[in-house]
Amino acid sequence: MSPFPRYVLRRHFLAGTAVAGVLSAVSAPGGASAASRASASASAEARVDKPFLALLTEAADARVVEVVDGLDATLAQLNNLGQARPAARSLRLLTSVHVWGDAAHHHDGALIAPMTRLVDALAAAQFDDGLYDQGAVHSPPDTAFSIVDLGLVYGLLDADGHTGTRAIRATLKKILLKAGKGLSTGGVHTPNHRWKVCAALARINSFWPDARYTRRIDAWLAEGIDGYDSGQYSERSATYAPIVTNPSLLTLARLTERPALYEHVRRNLDATLHLLEPDGEVETVHSRRQDQKTVKHQSEYWLQFRALALRERDGRFADVAATIQRRGADQTFDENPLGDFLAEVLDHPELAAPLPEATPAPSAYTWRDEDCGLVRIAKGRTRTTIFGGTDFPDVHAISSGLSTNPTFFKWRKGAAILDSLRLSPQFFSLGHFRAEDVERTADGWRLWAEVRAGFHQPLPPQHRRPDGRYPLTDDGRFWSAMDFPHRPKEWRTLRTEVRIAEADGGWNLDLEIGESEVPLALELCFRGGGKLTGVDPVPGQKDTYQLVKGYGTYTAGDDVITFGPGNGSGPRQPAVVDSGERYSWMGGDLTPAGQRVLITGRSPLRYRLNLR
């Protein structure tokens, strides 16, 4: 017998200007007096964050024209490319304003036709096994993303009960039940997919309970949630935590009455507090997914911080949620536009309650995430990131799903942002320095790594073959029919150590590289848009400069970062960044976006970089 309880769909959601049904107590008994009903309504009003709802409502209404005008393109994505997600998300947006009494498009008959086109196209694109194509044929996890949205849509339309959406609801029911078959038997690709599939099945089961759904949910959850002690999930990703894993666990906690799942989300948000930048960006250098080389924003975490702030009366979480709300449309939204959040609040109306009193996050802290090899230091308007936790020292591979970003230091001084500091020795084309770990020292922090490459000696007699046909094996840098494992080696070694210490409001970074003699380049990459002085352009390399002598400056607004000193120039220390053969063989590189400054040298080398 599955322990998964049957969930009875609550028929209340935010409806009308009285916002009745925000909490269960809002609905006064049918036999209550007019006075008691009025009192209940007034109580409900007091327990609603009206500015929050107004912000979402206005944004959702404003998105209607965009969604309707883009309908043909959205349907082309679905019909030609099998991409169901844009269609499901468009239907979700139109549904939210159709059922919400305060929306300008509440029960707007003009929305029925586009909503019908979307749901009919989604039904037609669905395979007999209930799955969709979205970058993979008959994909259960990609289907789950759309089914979570469509389940939410069905719940809102069903609770609203408007006669104009009766046919839409009937089609949605067919889609959801058909999807239940594929999701209750299909597999996944990545860790977060498990929780999205569970959330989709929980949605379907909340309307039409089925033991197949609950058994599958139980099986996935029995594997354990992939969270580290630090609070990060195994993918260490600011993309997949707020967009996939956290929302899925919150849905499961609510629909399947598993309150223990809230703790995983709370721990992740607690860790995320230390990754937030003052301008709304989120640190991602430690990620194992594609966001390790992109900029993400805290707006994606909005409703999660709000949910946990309300549940646990956590003022820190309330402060983040309030900050995002205050910024409103004047911030960057990644995958979820501002108006798209309305549907989630209508589905989970408790989110509309007023936030508890905010507790501003501390402006000074040192936080170390040992699971990710990450250190974050905040002091006033400065933020520092030290990273020594790539997967490369353990697996020696560059691949999707691995942490490979070679950035080991980042520094923000108000508007002046050093987005990346990297070190690239030209040592057997092994690529950038990637630290093996980060450790605390008496005066700061230490990063280190040792790499080596071998020259191969003749095979011992017992491994020689007269026909010369040796197996294809891996040298660690390349493959060849040389039977590398059985050959004696003559090793060349390169050791790197970086010591980082605070000094005069900035940082000193002492680099020691040896013993092999190779050219190297220290690459400082500053955020685009600022002004550089004291540096020379590198011919043939766009947005790339060299600091040859003295100190350079980078200015953004009223903030200045001074860096240096230069370390000379010349043919034996070329202004070149070697990304390594693992990239160059595939025609790739690791050139970061922004304004790059190279400080070159040659090992063995001891050099101090001053940042002020």
From TrEMBL:
Keyword match Signal: yes
Source organism superkingdom: Bacteria
InterPro entries: TAT_signal
Keywords, sorted A to Z: Signal
Signal peptide span: 1-20
Protein name: Secreted protein
Annotated organism of origin: Streptomyces iranensis
